[in-house]
Structures are given as C-alpha cells and as structure tokens.
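Reviewer 2 asked us to include a model.

Predict the structure of this chain.
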Amino acid sequence: MQKKEANKKGALQPAPKVLVSCRGLNGEDNVLAVGYCGNCSYTPPMVMVGIVPARYSYKMIKESGCFVVNLVDKNYQETFEYLGSHSKRDCDKLKEKNVKLKSGEKVKAPLLTDCPVNIECTVVDSIMTGSHEMFIGRVEYVHADGNLVDEEGNIDFSKINFI
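Predicted model (structure tokens):
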C-alpha cells in the first residue's frame, strides 16, 4: 500500500455528530454543532467538547459550568445542519426548527428530547488547544431511549443510525 501525506486537520475520523446544548445564567438556551468531542476518562466518566471562543454558546458554558452532549441520528439531520450553520446571534434558531428541550436532571442545561442519547456534564477543567477551548465535563447523568439500553444499563450504539 502506497501512502501519501494527508490533511492534518480533522485527521481522526469518523467523529460523532453531536449537538451541545447549554443555558446561560440569564436562562437563555442554545444549541451548537460540535466537531471535537469524545471520551477522555472512564473513571470517573468524562467527555470533552471543543468550542471556538467566538461561538455564541462559549460564554454560556464558561459561565454556567455545564453542558449536555446530544447524540444525533439521521432523523435529526436537517435540524443538525441548520443548528450547525446558524448562530443564535442572528436568529432564534431553536424556535425556527421547533427544537424540543427539557431541563437536565443534574445540570442547569437543556437536553434535546428528539436525540436518542443525552449526556449531562459538569465542567471540571478546560484547556486552550489553539483554535478551540476543550471543556472537560464530568458525566453526571445519561439519558437514553429505552430500546437502546440493555438490562445492565449499557447503550447498544449499533441501534443508532448516526449521521
């Protein structure tokens, strides 16, 4: 197999398509598409999300200290693309797409009820890595559609038709 140099940006693929939801201290909700997301610890369970400081949601997460990672399936693709391409600075994108939100059980951030898995997180640390600030979130609660969860509480991710 002959190899050649490839683009370094986004070299680790495929990455999950996720929407991160948050709530500002003033009670305003927002959702943004995040390209950098992943597990970063199993004990205790933690995930990380990378957010560009210029994004509308950045200040909300920085000040509130929490967020929700919402896993997206193909049924939500149109909404995902809209939320990822529009800023709440310019329009009420949540109202435009009739995004259904529910308050988290453990954190003061909303979850997207139309997504099959929602991961509530409390920020425990962050680091600037260049273009993004990586927020490390301790997993506080995981919501999953009942048909995805086995008797031991494990999520069968093969049942999700990811984008």
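The chain has one domain: 18-151. The chain has a mean pLDDT of 94. We have added this to the supplementary material.
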